[in-house]
Amino acid sequence: MANDAQVPGLTRGGVVITGASSGIGKACALYLDQRGYRVFAGVRKVSDSEALTKAASSRLSPVILDVTDAKAVSDAAAQVERALGELPLIGLVNNAGVGVGGPIEFLAPSELRRQMEINLVGPLAVIQAFMPMLRRSRGRIVNISSIGGKVAAPFLFPYNGSKFALEALSDSLRAELKPFGINVSIVEPGNIKTPMLEKALTAVDESLRTLPPDGVRYYGQQLDVVRKMVGGPAAPVEKVAKVVEHALTGRRPRTRYLVGTDAKLMAFFHWLLPDRAFDGLLAMAMRRLAGGEAGSRDASPREPQDRPSGAAR
Predict the structure, then answer these.
(1) How far is C-alpha 79 from the chain's CA centre?
(2) pLDDT of residue 209
(3) Which of 159, 218, 219, 257 is catalytic?
(4) I need a surface site. Which of 144, 230, 300, 309 has the fewest CB within 10 A?
């Protein structure tokens, strides 16, 4: 992914990044700004806009952009077009997203709808709004998915489902836009060191807090294990930023980029093993994290009062 593998002249155009308030989006925005790109960083709050401006050069322009608000998306596209003038929009990075989890048995349909609205319908709306500019410039689209878009994990169905769907959107879009010279890439990170890890841990605690007594009894112990998995080793966020730059400017961008050792290992074993064998491998890993208890057939059901000490109350 060296500089000499980049398409010349692309740094003279602009890049739009959604969800740039924190985490991967913020890291990508600041990294591309440092590399000389004209960055339009989508944020939802003015305070986030001010924080980004202080950390970046004058090349970075925050844009108020809520991907679930049709008018905000349309206004953001118009703002970017005015700011670029005759310069091209060379890339769109769809990063905005949230993570919803919990046992499927007790999942509120409204939470699934919220998950899909942000992680799937949102990117679709943004792509459609910026497509006229991308078509003129033969720009590129980079969708930030996850290893969870390739391998579904227990208690993460809403998040996994949204990322599986984003992968399908990306594949279909790539085929549809190929005749027009517009590349579409998918980035699939594993655990990354960002504030989203803390948010994920909070989400697990919230799942435990809101479960009914039967839910805690059936799934509490396993949710404890998921919490340990989420809090495990994580790759630096700069790895994702470098991959995004290659997807935007490389002469031969990949259709998919796995980021992180954990993501690569999980994808490999999921490809190698039959479904039930992979399920067994996952269950074994969860048992080890739980000290050999979680998921074992003779483990006693967890009682409601046995919530973890860190769980929100």
Answers:
(1) 25
(2) 81
(3) 159
(4) 309
